[in-house]
Structures are given as C-alpha cells and as structure tokens.
Amino acid sequence: MATSCPADRILVTTALFTAADDEPSPGAVAIGGDRVLWAGPLEALPEHLRGTDTEVVDYGDALVMPGFHDAHLHYFHSALYLSPLAERFVGENEADAVARLAPLAARRPAGSWLLTQGWRDYLWNPAGMPSRASLDAVYPDRPVAMYSGDAHTLWLNSCALERLGITEESEPPAGGSYDKDADGHLTGIVREAAAMELMPRIVAEFSREELLDAYRSFERYLNEHGITGVCDVSLMAMPGLDFVRDDLFGALEEAGELTVRVSMFPTLLEDRSRLADLQAAHTGPLLSARGFKQFFDGVSSQHTAWVHDPYTNARFEGDCGRPTVGAEVMEALVAPAADEGSPVRIHAIGDEAIHRCLDIFEAHPVAAPAHHTIEHLENFQPDDIARLARADVIASVQPRHITLDPGGPERDLGPERVPYMWPFRTLLDSGATLAFGTDSPVTDIDPIDAVYTAVTRRDADTHEPLGGWLPEERITLAEALRAYTAGSAAAAQREGELGQLAPGMFADIVVLDPNPFELAPEDIQQAKVQATYVAGKKAYER
Length: 542
What we know:
The chain has 17 helices and 23 strands.
C-alpha cells in the first residue's frame, strides 16, 4: 500500500509476528487510518512515514501480531450468557445446577424465564441426564430453561413445558426429540432441533436495549482478550433461527460503537435471499455477510454425530448417529450456492458427515478466492484427512473441544478411531488450512487458552493430561497463532484484508506480554493482552 503521507501511529517492538513468518523479530508497524502502511524491520522503516504528528508507541519486548479472529462463534448466545439476563455454569451435579439458579432468580422479574447454559451431565458426580422433577421442586411456578454446554440439549421444568405448549402428544420437529420416561411422561429433556427452535420464544421477553447492552459488553470482552474479528455463524438450520442478528450489529455500527469486525454466515436454505439481503444492507468494512452455514449432524457425546461404524457404546443396534438432512438434500442446497460464488460452511463432526461433506464440496467447488469450510471435524476416516487440502476446503476447528469430555472419545468411538480425532498436526502436514475459534458459548472465547491447548494437547483449566492427549498431533506456537489469524481470515473469506500485518491489510492488532515465544509451551497462558487495535484505533489497553 504505497503512500507518501506520514503514519498516524507506529508500533515498535523487539518481537513482531506478521503471521507470514515462523517466529517474531524486531520490527515496527506503521498505521495510517484503518490500514497497515508498512510492517518490517525498524531500520528499514521508510523515513517519510515518521511525521511530526506521528505517534510512536514502543512496546519493548512484547509481541505485536495480527489481532485474533474467532472463526466460529454464536454472538447472540455468547453475549446473552455473559450478561445479567442469564447465567452460565456447568454445576457439580444435578442438584448443584438447580441451586446455582438462585442468584438469577433473585435479579430477574417475578415470573420471567430463568435461562442458563453450560451443564454437562457426563462431567457431573454422579453423572446422568437430569429431569424436570428437580427443577419443579424449587421452581414450580416459574419457567426454567437450561441449555447444555454443547447447546444441543435443553432441560426444562414443567412450568416451561406448559408455557411452551409442549405436551405428551406434541410432535417434535424433524431432527429433534422430546424425551419421555418408561411410562411415556415428558422428562423435560429436549434435544437438537426441538431444543433450538424454542430459543426465540424463550428470549422474546428481553428488550432490544437489553440485548444491545449485552452486545456492547461482549464486544468489550472480546477486545480485552485480543479479539479483533469474529465469524458469527448460524446456530441452526431451521428458517428464521440462525440468530445472526444483523439488526443489533447494525445499530452498534450506526452509533459508532462497533469495535469488532464481524463476518456473518446465515443459514443456507433453498431460498438464498437472506445472504443477498445482508450483503446489500451491510457494505462497510466492520460488518458484512460472507457466505452460508449448514448442518450435517449433531454431537458425538449424544450419539447424534453421523459416524460410519456404530458407536462403541451403541445404545441400539446400528447406532451410527444420523444426518440432519440427507446427503442428496445437502448437495441440492450447496450446488446452486457454489455456482453463484457463495462459500458454504457445514457443521460436520462425525467421520461419515465429514466424508459426505467432502464428496459434495469436491463436486461443487466455489470459485477462488472463496473457500468452502467444514466446521468442527472431530473424527476422520483416515483417507479423508488429505482430501481437505486437495479440495481447498478449510478446517474450522475449536482447540478447546479436544479436552471438553475427558475419556469421551475412547468411550464413544473406541481405540481404533481415537487416533483420528482432531488431527491438527496431520492436517497441517497434508497442506490443509486450519482456522481456529471457540464455538462460544460452548467454550470461552479466550484465544490464549485455545492456543495453549493446540500446542500442548492439554486442557486449559486442568492442564490434563500430562504429556498431552494424542501428543503427536501437537502443533507449534507459530502454527497455532497463524491458524487464529491468517487461517481464520480465510474462513471469514477475508484473507486479502485480514490476518497478517502487511501493507494494505486492516490494522487489527494485538499486543501480548510476556511474549509467548519466550515462554515454555506449558506457560503460554502467562501471556496477557496489553492492547488491542481495531481498524487502527485502540479498542482496549490493559
């Protein structure tokens, strides 16, 4: 980006990581407006960029690098569960989860919904699926809705079932279920599509201003963690339920309050007009729509991920999970979108879902520079790993998913399939592009924790297991940071604008101290965000 004008600001450091290199080196970044004018060795800095009004910021030995870009999160729910409107927790067991509702019940208006997210029955002691009975005992006259940590299962009390009009005669939508006990009575557990379609009715009582406040708080939280951009991807495939709220983003942008770069990915339907409408309405550099999202299966822990061979702990004969839609239906959705140049991102966790997804993307590539993307990719058929690079399909993965369920892969898939779980090293060696994110609110958005897990294959909270889970799939710090910057920019369909520090790129920058390259892998979490710049402006300073 040639310019004869002085820079507005020059950031100087002994550790500049542009994401195009494998290790940092002394250098500087010159910023003009919302763009990088120059990045490289300090001694090579063009003299004309140093003007009389140019601000020079010396960050010493701190790492200066492109801002983190979360390639996969759900903004609405992430903002909601970190706001006073709801709560987020796992709980020690069913009774403890019920007890943790008390502060929310005390601050929300009488009779209003009590909404939470985070419980994981397989982590409880004792483990086991909860029921409405425990909620009814404490909240007989107030609706309670508690989403699981993976956001695929909903735990309701009787008051909530009644308010939602769910009875024992109710038919769930395709791809969902209302669980019943042996006597045919509702347990209060609602799964998959049936759970997700209820969300708009549950959150309808929150006002627009309450939701805007939640969005403002969440973007501050993102900036505090060095995140300068996100991909807000559809939560579910049913029409009208993607929760990509461009109206809220648009209001923040219009007020000059948007401090994170947002790329929106609504649901791919037969009617593809929503993407066109979003693209027409939002043309600025901070808010735009970049492609579609679809869903091929569920999650392994609930046996709803689509696998080729039955689960090792099969719940019935032929228990292979299931596709959310048939492969021929998915192909019929993808083909016209690809022909029109719109990239598609598909949630595919099980090995059969990934395999069929690759079949479809190979048959219907999208024109460069766009890329199709597969989301999550937990369990591969061995020959499919190399297919991603050949097909130019991005692997959008969430490192913290690796350790969410200790022992879960062994329990559900068995020792023969475990070596092909989240194979980051093998994917990179095959030439594939990794894009890192968090699936927030499923895991917290802190990128340092996710990088730690990718580099060590250990849980960011417990630091288990010692030595790492499948340690042969560890990747380097530079590779992890590149996946969180340049890789995520590619998944956002913005690799020519974001993800590197180079002339012409947007000046989205994070400063980390201590420099994680100077830390042992097990100490990476000591690195803290010192400053975050979005579009050349300081959005956060420690």
